[in-house]
Structure formats: C-alpha cells, structure tokens
Amino acid sequence: MCCPGCLAVATLIEQQGLARFYEFRTVPSARPKDHAAAASPWAVCDRPEVAARLAPRAAEGRNELRCRVDGVTCAACIWLLERGVRGIEGVTDVGVNPLSGETTVQFDPQRTRPSEILGTIASFGFEPRPALLGGADHGHSEAQRAELKRLAVAGLGSAQVMTLAAALYIGGFEHMEAAYASFFALASMVVATPVVLYSGAPIFASAWRDLRGGRLGMDVPVALALVIALGASLVNALRGSGHVYFDSATMFLFFLVLGRFLESRARRRAGGVFDALADLRPLSTTRRRGDSLERIGTIELAAGDLVVVAPGEAVPADGELTSEHGAFDESLLSGESLGRLRARGEAVLGGSVNAGRAPAEIRVTRLGADSYLERVGNLLQRALADRPAFLRVADRWATWFVVALLAITAAAGAFWLSTAPDRAFEVVLSLLVVTCPCALSLAAPAAFAVALGTLARRGLLLSSARVLERLGDVTTWMFDKTGTLSEGRIVVGRVDTLAALDAESCLALAAALEASNEHPIARALRAGGPITAATDVDYQPGYGVTGTIDGRRYRLGSARHVGALGSDDSQCVYLADGQELLARIELTDTLRPRAREALAALEARGYALLLVSGDTLGAVSRAAGALGVKEWHATQRPEDKLALLEARQRSGAVVAAVGDGINDAPLLAQADVSVALVAGSQLAQASADIVFTGDDLRVLARLPDWAAATRRIVRQNLAWAAVYNLAAVPLAAAGLIAPWMAAIGMSLSSLVVVGNALRLTRRLTDDARVPTVSAPHPAREQTA
Amino acid sequence: MSILFALIPLAIALLGLAIWAFFWAVRAGQFDDLDTPAVRILLDDEEARDA
Asked: Which of A102, A150, A410, A632 is the most exposed place for a label (fewest CB within 10 A)?
C-alpha cells in the first residue's frame, strides 16, 4: 500500500465484499474523476423539470431512469455497476446492456432520487450520460433482436428445405414415385413460404418503397428473384408436377440476411451521431438572474438567458460573451489543441470548454435546431445520406441485368408459345431459375460476409462491405495528425536552457506556476511529479501565467508574455524571472508507435500520402519530418481540409481519409473511403466507413492488401457466375434444360461461390506480419 | 416408405418448435448479453450472503 488512504480504501473494498471485482475484470476500467471537487454535479437532475424528462413514472410508486453509461468494458464492470446501484435504498431493479452501456434503473421516488443513482454510478468510476439532450435511440436493441430472429429463421428454414430438396434431386434420378415427389414438394412449401415471407420482409418492404418512388433499387431484383422463385415453386407444388426451387430461394435469402446482419452490427458498433452531439453539451449550467445564480438543467435554458461558465466547464449553448474576455478550448470542435481567445460580444460555441481561469458570462443566442452542434449533425447526416453515388452505379447494373433477363425470358416465352405452347411454361421457368441471380448475387455478399467477420477480428469494423470495393480505387491517403498519427497528448519535449538554471529546475518552476490550471499544456508541465504550487498566481488567458515562488516573481507563457523576442510558436512556452529568460520549453505531441512504419508501407505500395492538421506550422512540420511524409498542410480548419480534399478529388484522385476528431467528421463524410479511430470522437466514427479499434497502424496499412484479396475472390465468383449464366441461358432458352437440371445447376454454382468465399478466412488471417486483435472487446465482436 | 408421411410432418413440427424456442429466448433477452453470464455464475455465493 502506498499510503494510509489507499489502505483504508482497500480495507473498505475488502469489507464490502467488493474485492472480487479485481478477480473478474478483464480490462482495466476508466479512472474515476475527482468527485469530491465537484459538489454533486447530478443535483440538478432532481429539479422537477429535469427529473420528469430523465426518470418518468413507470408505474404506481415506481419511476424508471434510463441513461447510457460510458466506461463499461467487461463483465466485472457490469457486476460492480448493478451491485452498487442495487445497494441504494429504494432501487428495485437495475439492468445494464453490456454492448451499448444502456442502463435502466427502477426506483421508488419517495425513497431515493435520480441524483443519488447517477452519483453512485459516477462514484464507481463510470460516466453516466443521461439521455436528456439528444434523441438516444432506445429502439435499437429491439431492431437487433428482430434481425437475429430473421437470421435464425432463414438459417434453420434453409437447412430444412435443403434436406428435402436433396431427397427430391436424388429421387429425380432414382425415379421416385410421383406421390412422394409431390409430398416432398408440399413439405418444402410449408417450410419455405413462411420463412421467405418472414425473413425477407425487410427486403420486400424496401423493394416496394423503391418501386413506389419510381426507382429500380438494389433490393428490387433481389425481391423479384425471391418472388419468382417462390411463386413458380408454389404453382408447381400445388400443381403436383414440375420442379420446385424452395431450396434456392431460402438459401439465397439466408446469405442475404447474414450479410446484412453483419453489416448492421458493424454499423451499430460505430455509434450514433446524436449520442455524440449530446455528449458535448453539459448536463447542467449556472444561470444568472439579476444577482442570483441558480444551477439549472441545460434543457431548461431559453434564448436570452445569461449563463456563467466556470473554468473547465463546457458552454451549454451557442451565445455571445458578455465578460471582458475569455479563452475557450474548441479542440473537440475544431481540432486546435490550444485555447482560443474571445472578447466581449464575440460568439462562443456550445460544447467548447472555458479554458480561462475566470468564470465567463455568456448570453445564450441559439438553442436546439439552430445551434452549431445541431447544424454540424444535420450537415453530416445529409452528407451521409447523399454519399451512395457508388451504390447508384451498382444499382444501374442490377437494373440492366434484371431488364435484360426479363426481356430474354419474354422473348423466349413468346417464341415457344408460338411454336410449342405446351412447353412454354417449362422453358420460361427453367430460364428464370437458371438465371435467378443466385450465384451472381451470392458472389459478392458471400465474400463480403466472410471478409467483414474476419476483418472485425483484426480490429477493423466496416460499416459496409462496399468499402472494400472502393478501396481498390484509392490513390491518396490523407491523415489527420492530432489523435490519429499522434496520440493527441501533449508532453514536454526539448528544454532549451537560456540562463544558468538547469532544465530540471526550470521544469519544476513551470510546474509550480501551472499547479492549479486545467489547460492541457499545464497538465503536461505538471506531469513530472509532486510540485509545490506558486503563490499569488495571475493567469492571463491565451498569454501565460505569472506567479511567485520562494519570493521571486516568474513568468511563463508565450514569447510576448515574458517579453522575449522570437517567433511566437504556440508549441513552446518561455520561462522568465524578473531579469532574464530562463528556458524555452518545447511541447510535442507523441507519435503513435509504428505510425512511421505504417506510412512507409503505404508509400511503398505507391499511394500518395498527405498530412493535414489544424495544428501549428512548427508542430506539423516536425511530425511530418519524423514520419517521413513529404506533403503536409498545417493550420487547416475543417473547411480548409474539406476544400483540399475536394480539390484532390476534382483532379481525379480517389482519397482515403483517416481521422479522429469532430473537426474531421466532414472530411470523413466527403472522402471516398474514411477511417475513424475508435479513441476519437463518436461523431467521427459515425461518419466513417471503417472504424479502427486497434492501436497498431500497421494493421491499417495492410487493409489495401486485404481489400484486394476480397475483390479478387469477388471477381472470381462473378466470373464463374457469369460464365455459368452465359452457358446456361441459351441452353435453357432452347428448351434443352429441364427445370430440375436448372435448379441443380444453380445450387451447385452457388456452392462453388460460397466455398470460394470461405477461402478468404485463411487469406485474411494467415498474415503473421501483423498482430491480430487489439480491439477493446475482441470476444464481443465474434459472438453474434 | 409410407412412414415418411408421418416423419416429415414431425420434422417440420420440430422445426417450428425450435423456432418458437429461439424466439422465446430472444424475447427473454437471452442473446442481449453473451459475455457477463459466464462470469456471473461464479459470483452467486456472494449474493446469497447478502440476501
């Protein structure tokens, strides 16, 4: 034990019987915040207006509080959370969803309060995120369950229908009695019809939506194939003669549903736009009315209200500054790691953090739909909804395929009707079945389903398999610096001593001056160890700090602040005493391990590399030098990044962008392929095609190879399906293929395609050069 | 081979039963959390002392 305090805490944990937490946790949990300092931040949740939204009445004498809890990483967390909350007097039930962290607490409002529940959760080191501001999506677990049920029904049903179909095929050679044949057909019908109608319902619905909107979407040919296969089989089964294709229909459906299931799981993992936006705004704020200050919930704010934002607190809504001046950290919004100065009357963005030392007073101007955050969210959603330019191309092909197929079938049908009317039905059926785009439509989904699952195990979560196709066209990789190639954590770099005092003493002085400041630079300077705080500290936001240590007055900050000459690079601070400059302290952002190797690997493959950052010239040029990147752009605002990207795209480049911050979100939405890092903001993740949960960027550098391997398999499959169809269509149109032969041919061609796709598993895991999982929840990703 | 006329409907009935059971399990939240129950079973003696 390091101190009596720790001993006391450990004893307490032991006495409470909570020690087992450490036996069962598999991932270290998030560090608890200092809760003694903040006088219950949750008290505001007890205000009637807030409580009514947060914890509505569920039944007589029982309210239900719902919130998301961040920091839930493993089984031990959930155990601790449930046990801790259940221990509160008046709580009747607790449920935690380990995937989303969504927590539901039932309690008796007479015996406990929302603030106590939230406070307890926070005291265990988790972060409760009450769903007050954003539309937290409580319906998604319901959707997930529905998908799981559809998948199971399609899987079980197709297995059953396949066994019946096998009997029918063998019976076809062994001259099965007609009574048995029609019995088997009827049995398949009984199973397949409800399976197709139930599991295929979303596909039919979406195809219907497309048709009603006058479009021939992706789902139209798929739905048509299902309807034709099912309809023809129904007719034949009820007629008691001719072949049935229930097996093809159900198997086709199963693979479709499986692919979609994997895709939507990956997407859900990436998180929602609204959650991310809601997280930026504080739960409560201080409102000033005349001379009285009142702590209120942010949802109670109205335009025109005056709010007082304490240092370190987030600004609740867009507004204008009414104090003399203030410094605001917009790093989450704009990517700049250092504070931004604002004077009276200037606009302040909701979600930025007061980085100054004094409380800032702000008049709220815009709320809700008008606010900056909300508009960024809307912009993003539009960009996301707008993107599927690539999908439209694929759709056009599908449309042509279906149109051509129907034209050929109609022509063949007309021909046979005029020459041999009694065989016309059989030929049309053979033709439809043999061309039923089974192998063709399985060719891509089967390979993608395998690739999605395998890549997820390597920490790459793809929102859609089509990303793999687009990756093949990429010519340029664009990287953000802070948080992407670097760890986004400022540390003290080189210290140039300019006077007699050595570097260590200089750092100690700097740490003492910044002892009670929460600015990122101050935190970096304090990282050295225990310090004695300076006295009489005067803080000037955006410039520096002045304080007294051992009777001497010291200044720390920008060159201007200490009265030095020299470039005012915000990546270094100067320390001076009354007479002379003592030191120049460089602040750097540590680069991710392996980032250099990853970039070198990408460059070796012939990609153009581009480093764009909102950071200062000095910082970016240093990072570019260390990483070996030749082209870089510094001080880029989100708009500049977007403009740069668009210019590249106009000149013909296909750009993959990698980023992490909210400021990267528009960039990611516009890029042809986008990758977000999981440590970054949820907004960035929501707008990205790929979420990378690992730490080793070399995995990312291998992605083009894996995408190429997947595309190769898809191409082989497509080639096979095309050859098969080209050979089969003329034969079927000529009446040389009986429907049962068509069905066997189709099933076999589908099996070839699926078998080929399974080879991908080995291709994508056989690569010993790159470590496998570094994902935070590896086990969770694999269990469906 | 007439036994098939009985066995196949039986197989279909069993399939229906399996799907019903699966639906019940999904509805009851059996698939919501696939990680913690494996560990939770080791903790029950503590709960008992509490109650």
From this structure: A410
Instruction: State the first-to-last Cα distance of chain A, in angstroms, to the nearest integer.
Output: 42
A499-579 folds as Calcium-transporting ATPase, cytoplasmic domain N (3.40.1110)
The answer to whether residue B15 sits within a structural domain is no
**What distances in angstroms separate CA A545 from CA A106, A211, A539, A575, B31, one per listed residue?**
49, 66, 5, 10, 56
**Cα dihedral A175, A176, A181, A187 sign:** negative
- Lowest mean pLDDT, pick from A125-134, A374-383, A681-690, B8-17: A374-383
> Residue A55 phi/psi, 5° resolution?
-135, 75
- Among A247, A305, A329, A480, which one carries the catalytic annotation? A480
B46 touching chain A per CB within 8 A: yes
The residue type at A367: L
Biggest alpha carbon distance in chain B?
62
Q: What is the pLDDT of residue A541?
A: 60
The question of whether A689 is a catalytic residue gets the answer no
| Structural domain span for residue B41 | 20-51
Q: What tens digit of pLDDT does each residue of B27-49 get?
A: 887 887 666 666 666 655 444 44
Q: Which of A79, A156, A187 sits opposite B19 (nearest CB)?
A: A156
Q: Which of A24, A81, A142, A168 to mutate to test the interface with B (most CBs of B within 10 A)?
A: A24
Class of residue A644 by CB neighbours under 10 A (exposed 0-12, middle 13-18, buried 19+): middle
Q: Which tokens is A147 given? A: 């998908």
Nearest to A75 among B4, B27, B36 (CB): B36
Planar angle of CA A71, A74, A78, nearest 5 degrees: 75
CATH number, span A280-372: 2.70.150.10
Looking at CATH, the fold of the domain delimited by A4-132 is given as Alpha-Beta Plaits (3.30.70)
Question: Testing the interface with A: which of B23, B39, B47, B50 to mutate, by most A Cβ within 10 A?
Answer: B39
Q: Average pLDDT of chain A? A: 75
A552, with CB counted inside 10 A (0-12, 13-18, 19+), is: exposed
Cβ neighbourhood burial of A14 (10 Å; 0-12, 13-18, 19+): exposed
Report the range of poorest mean pLDDT among A395-404, A506-515, A619-628, A735-744: A395-404
Helix axes A438-457, A739-765, angle to 10 degrees: 20
Q: Are strands A632-633 and A535-540 parallel, antiparallel or unpaired?
A: unpaired
Whether CATH 3.30.450.20 fits A460-486+592-692: no
- pLDDT above 90 covers a percentage of chain A that reads 4
Give the best-scoring range by mean pLDDT among A47-51, A87-91, A356-360: A87-91
Element (H, E) at A479: strand A476-480
Instruction: Render pLDDT for A452-470 as a digit per residue (tens, 0 to 9).
Output: 777 777 777 777 667 787 8
Residue B31, domain member (yes or no): yes
Query: How far is Cα A520 from Cα A507, in angstroms, rounded to an integer?
Result: 16
A99-150 pLDDT, tens per residue?
A: 667 788 888 888 888 888 888 888 777 778 776 544 444 445 677 788 899 9
Q: d(Cα A635, Cα A616) in Å, to the nearest integer?
A: 5
For B5, the closest chain A residue by CA position comes to: A183
Instruction: Report CA Rg, chain A.
Output: 32
Does the structure show a pLDDT above 80 at A215?
A: no
Domain ranges of chain A: 4-132, 143-270, 280-372, 392-455+710-773, 460-486+592-692, 499-579
- Domains in chain B, number: 1
8 Å CB contact of B11 and A160: yes
At A704-730, the pLDDT tens digits run 888 888 888 888 887 887 788 788 888
Backbone Cα Rg of chain B: 19
Q: Which of A129-133, A456-460, A499-503, A523-527 has the highest mean pLDDT?
A: A499-503
